[in-house]
Fold this protein.
Amino acid sequence: MGRQLDIDINTPNCTGCHICEMVCSLYHENVINLDKARIRIKDKWDESLFVPHICQLCESPDCVEACPMSALSQDNGGIIQVDMELCTGCEACVIACPHEAIRWSDEFKRLFVCDRCDGDPNCVKTCSVSALALNGNNRKA
Amino acid sequence: MVKVKIYGTLALDLNESRIDLKFAGNTLADVIDQMAAQYGSKVREELLDQEGSLDYAYGIFSDGERVGLATRIQDGSELVIVNMLGGG
Amino acid sequence: MAEKVEGILCQKIAYIDLSRGTVDMEVVPLEWHRRFLGARGINMHLISRLTKADTDPLGPDNPLIIGLGLITGLPGFGSGRYNITALSPLTGPSKNRPNIGDANIGGHFGHEMRHTGFDYLVITGQSPKPVYLLITNDHIEIKDASHLWGLDTWETQKVIQREHRDERMRSLCIGPAGENVARMACIITGPKDAAGGSGMGAVMGSKKLKAIAARGSKDLAVAHPDELLRYFQEQQDILMERKWIKALGRLGTPLMLAIAVAGGYGAGDEKTLMGKAKEEAKGVFAENLLPYSLGHSACAGCAVHCRHRYLVAEGPYAGARGEGPEYGALHALGLALRITDPKEVLYLNGLVNKLGLPTQTGIHVAQAIKLYEEGIIDDTMVDRPLKFGDIALYESLLNDIAYRRGIGDILADDKFGYDRLPPEAQKYRLSSIKGAHNVVDWGLTVREFVFGQITSSLPGHVHRSRTGLGVLGLPAEVMQKIYDGHPVSPDKHSFDGKAYMTWWHEILYAVCDAVGCCQFQTVMNSPNAPKYEEYSKLIYLATGLDMPVPYLREVGERIYTQERMLLWRFGFGEREHDRVPQGWIHSREQEEERKKFDGLLDEYYELHGWDATGHPRPETLKRLGLLEMLDG
């Protein structure tokens, strides 16, 4: 806690609609493509469970520490900054992240991690079931 | 006594599926007022729209027929309140 | 001005011949989108071109068509819908002759397939051995499915995900019922989303096609992304405040059982608990499902999440889990079987989903028990007595149908099975509408509901025209405003305006289905819901195409008249097929009411531009650009 843009995940609420992933890619990439979203919903329908994964702005981020190329850093707001010039796609950060929130795409040769959408996260705004809450507030509060 | 059976989301909101009202009024509007007096503002919030008419998201029936705010409700009547969905 | 065809308008159609093992593909002609939008509209156009009156529904020439909506894949608006269409093995005039078949389905498959670059699959032929289709970016492979054959629908989907190491891979599949070509077999995706009607699973099984798997990572490039995002968010905010949306999201379609009790509706058969909607039914009312609910789930892109994720934690059905159940299941696997314990319905619901049978199969089980009680099915035909109240019996009969064992082999042939029962069985046949058997008798009280069902371009199917607004008790002025200034009585008992009302909804839902949106989010449950104006805007934002409201209404008419022409092709287009079935008439009063339903037909036909026999007039076909259909 203490960061400005904490997103709390309330997994039992998630309905697996994937709207958050759609708006994330629309906002950042101007296309709909879940493989380019910074938030991921893991779909375990046979266990009746849908699990959101999104960067938690860790105090001492394991991803930053794990990166052998120093391609990752964290700004004052806690947001992970990625220097794609340095990133080699080794996925050390992916393995290190305890939240499974940073993702390497072999297809697009890019690292995807949430940047909080310039301060007004689209995923939180559009989640109809408050599976995501910003700084303790959610749509239904 | 007017018996009010409640199903659906209103039953959950009021935590009540059956209300026996010692009815002192004449119309459905009076029934709703009495229910609100006992169960709070949620009754009106849900059953009425912003203009104070019956909100068609709910159906209130007596003997299989819909009743309106002005319908006279006799003592001994049985009302049923349900969420109204047109299709499914 | 020449319109640039890009993004969504560059998706492909694939023609897959399972006899020859070939795949051909091309870009979907823009003209098809202009004329029919997508999904149901384009699927039916393909049916009209690719089938004949004598195409064997279980033969190689029957095309199984998967077709996505024009905006399937977008966030919001219930845009996860698409259609699976083929000639139906269930409802034709004879065992080997077809009728029109179609199923609208949700879940996540449609969205996933969109990202592969394919919007339409036309699957013909029959594979000599079990296969599945693997659809990835711009690529389709026909793969061996011998390791999948025999698995239930859940196992099938999980094995495919595991072998491709990708939980994002989604599949449409059949279970044992489709494999054994039980005529009512359905196609399942996820835990419960079904192409449930018309026997699409039987068609798929007749082709030895076990599954269609899709995993795509292509961009869905919309024409106006920023504006679309804003428009979606603004519409979402409005939608989520609606009371009926909140109710649907909280309790789902099971809510409707209480409406049946309150409003005195109910299935005509007095012996079932729905007969006159008895109060014992409340054991399976929506609130009583809550103890088993873990939360809700949604189709892709839908914020309404109208169904539960459920788990039965204790008792003889401990471990039963799944999604749903829907109102139809509460009847067919519940009240029709004299069941009032929700755990039992949940258990049977999961069972049929895994077998790949529609929930309506419960009606077949109930019918078999009734025939046994009448002595028409006797002890030489079954291995144990058939009686109500025995869940183990219900389970074994459902399995028998899926595996075509014993009496199940007869039941699996649906109306055609009656040919193999003693002749006395004939008088116990359930009613048919345009060849569709088992059409449940809900009574004649709600005029527009009945009229919509008997005239439906998909035989006996209510969703062509679900005139739900009729039961909302809207004032007459509001009704008139909705229905273009045409007076429509808000009284369910009245026939006034009901022809116009039915026609109006038929046209709207044709557009809603073709766009790829869920009917729950249109003017079915409320007048304040997305309709033509919203679809016009969505189409523009997604594709750049300009389709104003009058244009869309004409597309709706085109789609519906196209379907009527197909009914004529298969022998069910005539006026006599637009009547209340005799089996629903239980009194002199209802006999009189039937005449009043007949009395609505002339106006209804005029609105559609059809003649008094129910055949589209040549000038209508000309206006709608469907003249080529006159050749049969």
In short: Residues 19-29 of chain A form the longest helix (11 residues). The two ends of chain A are 19 Å apart (CA to CA). Chain A touches chain C at residues 12-19, 22-23, 26-27, 29-36, 42-46, 48-50, 107, 122, 125-126, 128-129, 139 (CB under 8 Å).
